Amino acid sequence: MAANRKRKVDDENQQFNDDWTVQYYFVQQHTNVICLLCHSTLAVVKVSNIKRHYETKHQDFHNVVGDERTAQIESLRRSLNRQQNIFSKQTADFSVACEVSYEISLMIAKSGRPFTDGDFVKQCMITASKELSVRKLQKVALNRMTVQRRISHLSADVTRQLAEKAANYVYFSLAADESTDINSTAQLLVFVHGVSSSFDITEELIGMGSMKDQTTASALFEETVQLCSSVSLDFTKLVSVTTDGAPAMTGESNGMVTLLMKHQGKQNRRW
Question: Pfam families attached here (predicted)?
Fold first, then answer.
C-alpha cells in the first residue's frame, strides 16, 4: 500500500539551483522563485516549471549569452531589489505615520479639544522640525475626519478589550450617575467594577448615554441595560448597584435599581 501512495511535491524537497538564474533568469525570494524578466512568481520550486515558463514566454532571450547575459541578469536583479526596497520603505513610513496619527488623536480626545485641532498640530510639527524629517511629518494624517475616525477606532478598541475582560468576570458591580450637560441634555454615565477568577480587577467607564426623553426610571433602566449589553455583561453576575440617590434611581417600587433586580431575576439575585 505504501508504494501506491500519491507522490507529493513537498516530499521531493527540491532546492533552488543558482545555475537556474543564468539558464532561465529566475532568482529565489524567501520560499518563492521570481522571474527577473516579467516578475512572475512560482510557488513550487521545480526546474520543469521554471524551464517551461522561460521557454514559453521569453524565447527572445535565448540568443543572449556569455558576458552580455551575465550583465543583463545583474542589472535585472538590481532593478528588482530597488523596487522591493521602495515598497518596503513606503510601507514602513506609512506604518510610523499611522501610529503617530493615532497617538496624537488620543491626546486630542483626552484633552477634550475639537477634532479640527489635528491640522493645527500638524502645522506646528512641520514648523518646529524645519527641514528635519519634514517629508515624514507631512505623511501624518491629522485632518478633522481622520482624527474623528482614529478616536472612533480607539473607542471601539477600548470597548472590545472591556468586553473580553467582562467575559471572565465572576462578579461585578455598577455605578450609575445621571447629570445634565451645558446643553441641558441629561447624560447617564455607567461604570463597572468587576473581578475575575484570577482576581484581576477592572474599573472602567462602560459608556455615556444621552437621555433624549424624560429621565424616568424605565428610561434610565433601558439605557443602563443597553450600555451593559454593549460589552456583553452577564446580569446574573451583578452583585450591587451604586447610584446618585435620585428618586428615579432608588424608588422602592419602580426605581431603576428595582427594575434591574427584576431584570436579573429572583432566582439569580445575589443582592
Answer: zf-C2H2_12 (PF18658)
